[in-house]
Amino acid sequence: MRGASVAAFLATILWAGAGEAEPAGAPLYREHCLTCHQADGYGVPFQQPALAESEIVLGDAKALIQYVLAGTEFSEPGTSDWGNVMPGFPQLSDRELGAVLTYIRQSFGNTADAVSEQDVRGARER
């Protein structure tokens, strides 16, 4: 196993060992976010930002939804402190995006409100 695969495997074992049901967004996080933002949500230094204690993650859910849908691929060069760009995730369903954003907003020490499927649908319609 390599990097992200090992981390995803270990995260699955930890959830199973905790005796709790795994949050719906956890598998989506492992599939789409873990490689860059890491199992602890602190990202790769100088490459990807931390999701833990992030103003973007903890702030307005509608802005976060738009950010994740669009990604940073088309940001103006030099406007980021991070070495890598984040792709947009418009291919995720409203339910999937709500689940993974809820997971991010309620993991890594974060305590923000959940993001519903309806929240995502409304943001897409804008």
What would you say this structure looks like, in words?
The chain is built from 7 helices and no strands. The protein is globular. The chain starts with a helix and ends with a helix. With 126 residues, it is mostly helical. The mean pLDDT is 84. The protein has helices at 3-18, 25-32, 34-37, 55-58, 61-70, 94-105, 117-125.
Give a brief rundown of this model.
By secondary structure, the chain is mostly helical. It is 50% helix and 0% strand. α6 crosses α7.
CATH superfamily: Cytochrome c-like domain
Tell how many strands the DSSP assignment holds: 0
Q: Count the domains.
A: 1
Which regions contain 5 or more consecutive residues with pLDDT less than 50? none
Q: Name the structural class.
A: mainly alpha
CATH class annotation: Mainly Alpha
The major beta sheet can be summarized as: none
CATH architecture, by name, is: Orthogonal Bundle
Radius of gyration: 14 Å
Q: What pattern of helices and strands is seen along the backbone?
A: HHHHHHH
Helix content: 40-55%
Task: Give the integer mean of the pLDDT values.
Answer: 84
Overall body shape: globular
Count of discrete alpha- or pi-helical segments spanning 4 or more residues: 7
Task: List the main descriptive attributes of the protein structure presented here.
mainly alpha; Cytochrome Bc1 Complex, Chain D, domain 2; 7 helices
List the helices and strands and how they pair.
Layout: H1 3-18, H2 25-32, H3 34-37, H4 55-58, H5 61-70, H6 94-105, H7 117-125
Helix pairs in contact: 2-6, 5-7, 6-7
